[in-house]
Design a protein that fits this description.
Two copies of one chain form a homodimer. The first copy, chain A, has two domains: about 140 residues, Nucleoside Triphosphate Pyrophosphohydrolase (Alpha-Beta Complex); about 55 residues, Arc Repressor Mutant, subunit A (Orthogonal Bundle), CATH 1.10.10. Chain A contains five helices and eight strands; from the N terminus they run H-E-E-E-H-E-E-E-H-H-H-E-E. In chain A, the strands form two sheets. In chain A, strands 1, 2, 3, 4, 5 and 6 form a six-stranded mixed β-sheet that branches. Chain A has a two-stranded antiparallel sheet with strand order 7-8. Chain A starts with a helix and ends in a 7-residue tail after the last strand. In chain A, strand 1 and strand 2 form a beta hairpin. Chain A has about 230 residues and is an alpha+beta fold. Chains A and B meet through helix 1, strand 1, helix 2, strand 4 and strand 5 of A and helix 1, strand 1, helix 2, strand 4 and strand 5 of B. Chains A, B: This is NUDIX domain-containing protein. Chains A, B: Keywords: Hydrolase. Chains A, B: One of its GO terms (molecular function) is hydrolase activity. Chains A, B: Pfam families: NUDIX, WHD_NrtR.
Chain lengths: ~230, ~230
């Protein structure tokens, strides 16, 4: 191949290499100050006897975000979940059937809002403590989960990705408790509040928490900054 | 389609939908306290008369990271650049030829280390101030650049993504100056140092900066935490 051909070769052409694309969704559940991960087993297909995160293939008429919502609903029944991209995995041999790249997403939910039910073709579904994930997950999902977990922890440090974990209106102490739970650290009250206000994502409702005399103000996420 | 078929439909099958995948690399250059973005024009192909970031198609035998390195070398001659994924874009009509999804990367370099040369099929290459990006970039690259820029700024707040922007050994003041330049803010010296040490990414070389009497210690990135 000449230098010229080699350069032209990086352009997209009608016969450029193509592969399938999947969405895999790491759904983290927050229960009593601990993060858990949602895993399933399916009744057919690759790794049908092994736990893995919900995932499935993108079609011609959908974006990868459409695909993630479709897959999550098909396999878990969960609807209207907020999720965000973590990373795209493209290792050559990551899928046993053919070349498949996957876009990994994370979501962060309260499990009590999403009762587990067995959908067709799903034989098992359950929440697992992060330190009790089953061995030998399907595909490269152990790696996906570990990297998504790090991502969630890191992002919590500079973004407000509380998702549905807080009520619509909450006190600063409730927010701090959530952060301390997920990050597994104790935070200095004054520094925490300073950093949260620097993020400019909260607004004071002007209301105070009821049942607490002279109690603390309730805050809510600013509309434009809310992630759901 | 029955419910059963619909569920089976999300599994990867031999005839599942396939599309081409590209890597686009937003290369930010740090010059005199300002971030600039590297743009090129090519001599053929789509958007050949418009500025866009270096990008090209992934082949069957390479990961998207291999692809990004190949593309960057082909179009700019840059080698051994550290880059990281930002986000994957999958809108249905984002490429004029066919369905093409792209994985966007960012890199952060010192332009003086990478003199610009015109490679075959590249008709123009230049650094642009972030507030002077040309109008009507090719593809969806305006969006890619804006989101990558936000990503770089956000990441700098909790990770040490200084890349090649600092010498191998540097003082804490030099590090703080870099952060202040890129984030375009003034940082409190004590808080800055506290946060940097919390990251646990630096080690004290034990050497002091020469030419400054009783001068400040030189630090370096811990080997395991260095990004290059």
């Amino acid at each position: 191949m000449t230098k010229q051909e080699k350069l032209q070769d990086i352009q997209v052409k009608p016969d450029s290499f193509e592969c399938s694309v999947t969405a895999d969704i790491t759904v983290f559940g927050y229960v009593d100050g601990k993060l858990k991960i949602l895993l399933i087993k399916r009744s057919f297909g690759h790794f049908k006897n092994q736990w893995h995160v919900p995932g499935g293939v993108m079609e011609a008429d959908e974006t990868i975000e459409d695909c993630a919502a479709k897959v999550l609903f098909s396999l878990t029944g969960f609807r209207d979940i907020h999720f965000e991209q973590v990373k795209t995995y493209t290792e050559l041999d990551r899928h046993p059937l053919k070349r498949v790249i996957t876009v990994c997403f994370y979501a962060l939910v309260r499990p009590e809002n999403h009762p587990l039910t067995l959908r067709d073709n799903v034989t098992s579904i359950d929440w697992f403590d992060m330190d009790k994930i089953p061995e030998k997950l399907g595909y490269d999902h152990e790696k996906l989960i570990n990297e998504a977990y790090l991502f969630v922890q890191n992002n919590l440090r500079h973004k407000l990705i509380v998702g549905e974990l807080l009520p619509k209106e909450f006190t600063l102490q409730e927010l701090q408790n959530l952060y301390e739970d997920i990050l597994d650290v104790e935070l200095d009250r004054r520094n925490f509040r300073k950093r949260i206000f620097q993020m400019d994502v909260l607004e004071n409702t002007g209301e105070k928490k009821q049942g607490v005399k002279g109690g603390p103000y309730l805050y809510r996420l600013k509309q434009s900054k809310a992630i759901r």
